Design the sequence.
């Protein structure tokens, strides 16, 4: 199938999942994950209506961002090293992967230095997997509270990547837990903190994520095909 057809199919599946769970399909956006995808393929997806692109590596993103400047929004979804924070605040509209106060402070400092505020999500490692980024569940509210005090950082919600399962139903409890956590944090009412975005769900499980409240689904393979 073509990239345009793949994207159309992903959007149809999102719409169906949203309607099944009584949500508005417009409340869910696709972040097209373009790591390792070549520019012509990205171009096809953008022409087919993809509006948000997600990148895992700052270096790889730069070339693409120049090429598509102004036509799409860019989200950073990879592990962000502090020494790349300076570039990230200039290049990306949303950083999904803040998981330490140190990184939050560095983004704040770098954004402040160029007169910007940087919108971020807090990445949560719900299963406490050693190989994955993300703050542990029990540390989330402390991190949010501290990062909420940073003038040039805006917390907009949460992101998670559950353990890998063949069966998306097994990922569902993690999606539900992230939504419950975001409701809990919203109720704490930290000044300036919004819990409006939930970034969860990938090619194998985005429908379950939408049914559990995802507002941003990060989809690579189902749009662009398998990565090398
Ligand atoms: C690669 C990646 C995705 C997309 O994964 P697919 O299974 O190809 O849809 C989503 N989120 C993150 C953080 C990724 O690194």
Sequence:
């Amino acid at each position: 199938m073509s990239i345009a057809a793949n994207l159309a199919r992903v959007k149809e599946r999102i719409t169906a999942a949203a309607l099944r769970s009584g949500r508005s399909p417009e409340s869910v956006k696709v972040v097209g994950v373009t790591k390792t995808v070549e520019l012509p393929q990205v171009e096809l997806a953008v022409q087919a209506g993809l509006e948000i692109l997600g990148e895992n590596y700052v270096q790889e993103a730069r070339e693409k961002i120049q090429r598509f400047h102004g036509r799409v929004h860019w989200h950073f979804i990879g592990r962000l090293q502090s020494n790349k924070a300076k570039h990230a605040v200039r290049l990306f509209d949303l950083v999904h992967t803040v998981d330490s106060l140190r990184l939050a402070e560095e983004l704040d400092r770098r954004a402040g230095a160029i007169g910007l505020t940087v919108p971020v999500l807090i990445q949560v490692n719900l299963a406490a997997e050693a190989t994955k980024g993300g703050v542990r569940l029990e540390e989330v509210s402390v991190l949010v509270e501290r990062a909420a005090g940073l003038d040039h950082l805006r917390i907009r919600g949460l992101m998670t990547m559950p353990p890998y399962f063949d069966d998306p139903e097994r990922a569902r409890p993690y999606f539900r837990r992230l939504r419950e956590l975001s409701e809990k944090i919203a109720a704490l009412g930290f000044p300036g903190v919004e819990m409006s975005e939930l970034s969860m769900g990938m090619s194998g499980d985005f429908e379950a994520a939408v049914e559990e409240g995802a507002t941003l689904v990060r989809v690579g393979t189902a749009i662009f095909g398998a990565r090398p």
In short: The pocket of pyridoxal-5'-phosphate is lined by residues 33, 35, 56, 77, 161, 202-204, 218-222 (CB under 6 Å). The two ends are 18 Å apart (CA to CA). The first strand starts at residue 29 and ends at 33. The mean pLDDT is 96.
